[in-house]
């Protein structure tokens, strides 16, 4: 696949360090320090590099007196060459922010890892070298790292190029290898490759001469004998014969993954028995046939895919050896125990008739695993010079067996395979690489599934095929004869090979989305560690690593869909499995609720992230098909939606889920769900349903006192609104610091909305004290954020910036990256007067990290940028203000109205007077509706009213301006400033707007 035209610079490190423009023109980096910093960032990409590491790389002799300042100076130089946004700074350090490969080294590495290098890909990759990498860097660790990495890539590309050309021009490759070995005379691997090239060219004498020379040189220089790879090549040269009949690799240009080839080569160097393992259709046979076609001309290929009995194996061995049948007893020189068995007969025949050093391939062993294991043991007891490679869906379990697990195709190379197949079927069809890559992902990267899907493109477009891929078993069925089977047949064969208990374990794993933890899987009846091991050993699940060290199991979507279909076909089994999932999810929610009140919440939050999809799926199931024996299940599971709302900002059909939770039983575990349901239904305007939820909550709380941390909230929701202030005041005096902190934050919010700014800050300060005393990290961050808002409202920008920074760090440490970004926006607003450049950098970083998010804080960030740019970049300020309104939408609440006010003032300040007045008049009408809401945010509405006053030109003594001052209007943005003037009472704004 050819590289698309670049629109960004690319760093050149394979020679003198430079920066290539989008047109390919090199720009030298003249500063030595800047060169070193740039190479350090390139080698670490995409990870950030700490300031300490950058200092060590760029100043290897002596660190500067001011490391941060020195690094910042060099970063500024690099930004002038690369572009202002090409290097991002963060608490972790600096990193390059570039779309696509960041350097010529990255391009070469990508080619070296490619599934199928193009005809000119390897050569093009080698042409990236413009000289000796690191020659213009000072001696030290950085230069050594670059040189070693470039050398690895160069050798990989060179060997891939040789391997590609070996079958078509082996003599030329052998000549090139002879030249390459002049600089590496003691490189045993290169000598072995040279010997294989000579054998491929039909010249075993040349191969023997190569071996003799390097053996003498190794003995003289190192006093060592040739290693296993050279010994194997020497043995192959001694026993050279024209290659036997072996199934050739398919004639098309799609090749197995070079990385898998490397793994297979490494496994064969470590052991003489290797099993290539993987699910059906993943490309096991393809990998082995390509390997032996290129690297092992002497081999015996035994096809066991149709073998179902020992007699079938004997027939397959006879066919591989070119004999009509095998004798009824072993042909080994000496008898061995059990020599009359079928395994002994087949093993003896292979051992006696195979050429010296041959590689024996046993393809498709999953139907007779035990028999094949005996066969391999018998062969090895007779011959030690033979290498055996088996392909199977099931591990053979031999003691010294090396296993190579075939990986799925990556989306990039799956798309490449799709494109080649499409071109063969419909040469003129238009393709979209993104769609093809998604098809590959949805088909689990299975080459067989991709081949079957590509056949459907005779009558479907790629987009229509993607829309239908959920029905993969009906869709991916081949027509005509041949060996190829349907996807359903492939998976069904693996299913039938599973023991019953392993089938039940697979159904349990498939019933949950995503990766499944071991302790979660063991919560299901009939699931044991042994049954899970069987599932993995049959290549139907894979164990995945995780930083927390817990075992997790991953299924492909194909296997998951098949297992779910088997479960659905048995209604009793499906009902039992759903009840087990409800029990698991209920226990999980109870456990998480308990741990969230502790001080170590990081692991609990990660657990929530991991299991949210699974619990939501169970919730959808119990809502869609209620269990009359467990009416409280929706209420027990509903709190998981709170986490989804926190993480993503919403949850589809939230009102319906909340209404279903109202039909609860009488279980104290349902209190959090009923509380959530009441809040959701009130927020969504479903007041009758909210009344029912409130009644159910009151009834359940009366019978089962809620936990201490929930009791004030339950009392506030169930009681009269007039008692809210009393409930919060009592809770703020609780001996439990968590309860006190939450109550004080609520009191602070209420006071802020009522324009009682000093009272709001006092409550927020008490919340911080209580939260820090509780030791709860999230609560502490939230309380600091709340206090920062109080300082900002009172005009203390310096204090607010400090608090926001600490809160953002706290959120980030817990993995609340979106909350951290939101708080950084507020920090930038607080710094906009004293440090506008820092504020702009913070805002731009938050916008980069947030992408196209439609969250309110992203709109606030755009409005803050507009405020900062209004004087120097009027058009940019207008664009930022308009973008904020695109995100936030109509003025549906006070904050939205505030941002609309900022836009109106920005329009006026940048010369768009008519548009500004229209916006202000529209906002004035919206404000009259917003003040009629049950809860009114006076400072935010006051800021919107101040904006209307500024745009309409009524003057600072206007009644509306006085009312805005009385409402303590927010002054976050410098463009909204009424100055000194008359001030009305706090509630005058509400009266005036109504």
Q: What's the tally of helices? A: 47
Termini separation comes to 65 Å
Q: What is the tally of beta strands?
A: 13
- Low-confidence blocks of residues: 115-119, 324-340
Helix content, binned percent: 55-70%
- What fraction of residues sit in β-strands? 5-15%
Gross morphology is globular
The residue-averaged pLDDT reads 84
- Which structural category fits the helices and strands? mainly alpha
Question: What is the radius of gyration computed over CA atoms, rounded to a whole number of angstroms?
Answer: 35 Å
Side-by-side strand order of the widest sheet: 7-8-9-6-10
How would you characterize the largest beta sheet? 5 strands, parallel
Structural account:
The model is unreliable at 115-119 and 324-340 (pLDDT under 50). With 994 residues, this protein is mainly α. Strand 1 and strand 2 form a beta hairpin. Helix content is 60%, strand content 5%.
């Amino acid at each position: 696949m050819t590289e698309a035209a670049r629109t960004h610079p690319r760093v050149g490190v394979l020679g003198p360090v430079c920066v290539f423009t989008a047109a390919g023109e090199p720009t030298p980096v003249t500063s030595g320090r800047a060169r070193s910093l740039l190479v350090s960032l390139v080698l670490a990409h995409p990870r950030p590099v700490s300031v300490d590491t950058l200092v060590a790389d760029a100043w290897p002799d002596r660190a500067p007196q001011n490391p941060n300042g020195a690094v910042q100076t060099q970063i500024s130089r690099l930004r002038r060459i690369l572009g202002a946004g090409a290097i991002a700074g963060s608490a972790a350090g600096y990193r390059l922010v570039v779309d696509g490969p960041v350097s010529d080294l990255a391009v070469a590495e990508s080619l070296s890892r490619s599934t199928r290098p193009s005809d000119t890909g390897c050569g093009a990759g080698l042409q990236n070298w413009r000289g000796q990498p690191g020659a213009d860097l000072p001696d030290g660790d950085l230069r050594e790292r670059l040189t070693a990495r470039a050398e690895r890539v160069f050798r990989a590309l060179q060997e891939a190029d040789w391997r590609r050309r070996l079958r078509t021009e082996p003599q030329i490759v052998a000549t090139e290898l002879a030249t390459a070995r002049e600089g590496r005379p003691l490189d045993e691997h290169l000598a072995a490759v040279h010997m294989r090239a000579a054998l491929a060219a039909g010249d075993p004498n040349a191969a023997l001469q190569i071996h003799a020379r390097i053996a003498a040189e190794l003995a003289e220089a190192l006093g060592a004998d040739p290693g296993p790879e050279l010994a194997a090549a020497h043995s192959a040269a001694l026993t050279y014969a024209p290659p036997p009949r072996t199934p050739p690799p398919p004639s098309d240009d799609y090749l197995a993954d070079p990385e898998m080839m490397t793994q297979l080569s490494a496994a064969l160097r470590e052991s003489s028995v290797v099993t290539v393992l993987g699910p059906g259709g993943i490309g096991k046979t393809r990998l082995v046939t390509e390997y032996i076609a290129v690297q092992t001309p002497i081999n015996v290929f035994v096809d066991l895919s149709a073998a179902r009995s020992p007699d079938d194996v004997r027939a397959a061995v006879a066919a591989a050896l070119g004999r009509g049948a095998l004798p009824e007893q072993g042909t080994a020189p000496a008898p061995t125990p059990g020599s009359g068995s079928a395994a002994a007969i087949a093993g003896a025949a292979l051992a006696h008739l195979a050429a010296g050093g041959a590689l024996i391939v046993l393809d498709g062993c999953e139907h007779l695993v035990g028999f094949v294991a005996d066969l391999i043991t018998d062969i090895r007891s007779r011959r030690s010079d033979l290498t055996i490679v088996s392909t199977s869906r099931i591990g053979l379990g031999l003691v010294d067996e090396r296993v190579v697990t075939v990986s799925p195709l990556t989306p990039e190379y799956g798309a490449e395979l799709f494109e080649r197949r499409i071109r063969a079927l419909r040469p003129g069809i238009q393709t979209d690489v993104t769609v093809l890559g998604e098809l590959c992902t949805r088909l689990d990267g299975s080459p067989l599934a991709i081949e079957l899907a590509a056949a459907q493109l005779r009558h479907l477009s790629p987009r229509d095929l993607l829309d239908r891929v959920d029905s993969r078993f009906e869709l991916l069925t081949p027509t005509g004869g041949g060996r190829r089977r349907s996807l359903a047949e492939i998976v069904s064969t693996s299913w039938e090979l599973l023991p019953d208990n392993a089938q039940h374990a697979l159904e349990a794993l498939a019933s949950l989305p995503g990766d499944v933890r071991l302790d979660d899987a063991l919560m299901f009846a009939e699931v044991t560690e042994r049954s899970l091991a069987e599932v993995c050993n049959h290549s139907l699940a894979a164990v995945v690593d995780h930083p927390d060290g817990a075992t997790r199991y991953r299924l492909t979507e194909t296997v998951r869909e098949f297992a779910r279909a088997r479960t659905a076909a048995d209604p009793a089994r499906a009902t039992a499995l759903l009840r087990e999932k409800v029990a698991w999810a209920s226990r999980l929610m109870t456990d998480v609720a308990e741990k969230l009140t502790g001080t170590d919440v990081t692991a609990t939050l990660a657990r929530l992230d991991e299991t949210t999809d699974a619990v939501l799926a169970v919730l959808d199931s119990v809502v869609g098909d209620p269990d009359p024996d467990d009416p409280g299940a929706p209420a027990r599971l509903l709190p998981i939606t709170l986490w989804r709302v926190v993480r993503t900002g919403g949850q589809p059909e939230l009102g319906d889920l909340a209404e279903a939770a109202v039909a609860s039983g009488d279980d104290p575990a349902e209190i959090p769900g009923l509380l959530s349901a009441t809040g959701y239904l009130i927020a969504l305007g479903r007041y009758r349903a909210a009344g029912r939820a409130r009644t159910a909550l009151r009834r359940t709380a009366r019978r089962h006192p809620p936990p201490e941390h929930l009791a004030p909230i339950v009392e506030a929701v169930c009681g009269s609104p007039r008692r809210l202030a009393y409930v919060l005041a009592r809770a703020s005096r609780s001996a439990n610091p968590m309860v006190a902190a939450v109550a004080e934050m609520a009191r602070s919010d209420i006071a802020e909305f009522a324009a009682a700014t000093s009272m709001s800050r006092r409550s927020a300060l008490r919340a911080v004290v209580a939260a820090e005393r509780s030791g709860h990290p999230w609560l502490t961050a939230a309380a600091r954020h709340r206090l920062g808002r109080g300082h900002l409202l009172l005009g203390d920008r310096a204090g607010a910036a400090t608090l926001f920074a600490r809160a953002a760090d706290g959120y980030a440490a817990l993995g609340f990256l979106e909350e951290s970004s939101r708080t950084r926006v507020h920090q930038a607003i607080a710094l906009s007067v004293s440090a506008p450049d820092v504020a702009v950098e913070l805002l731009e970083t938050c916008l980069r990290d947030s992408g196209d998010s439609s969250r309110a804080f992203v709109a606030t960030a755009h409005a803050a940028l507009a405020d900062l740019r209004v004087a120097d970049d009027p058009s940019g300020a207008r664009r930022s203000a308009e973008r904020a309104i695109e995100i936030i939408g109509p003025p549906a609440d006070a904050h939205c109205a505030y941002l609309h006010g900022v836009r109106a003032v920005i329009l006026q300040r940048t010369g768009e007077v008519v548009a500004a007045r229209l916006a202000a008049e529209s906002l004035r009408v919206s404000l009259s509706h917003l003040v009629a809401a049950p809860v009114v945010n006076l400072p935010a509405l006051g800021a919107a009213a101040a904006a209307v006053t500024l745009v309409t030109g009524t003057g600072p003594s206007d009644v509306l301006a006085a009312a805005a001052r009385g409402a303590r209007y927010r002054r976050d943005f410098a463009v909204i400033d009424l100055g000194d003037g008359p001030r009305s009472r706090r509630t005058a704004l509400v009266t005036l707007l109504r």
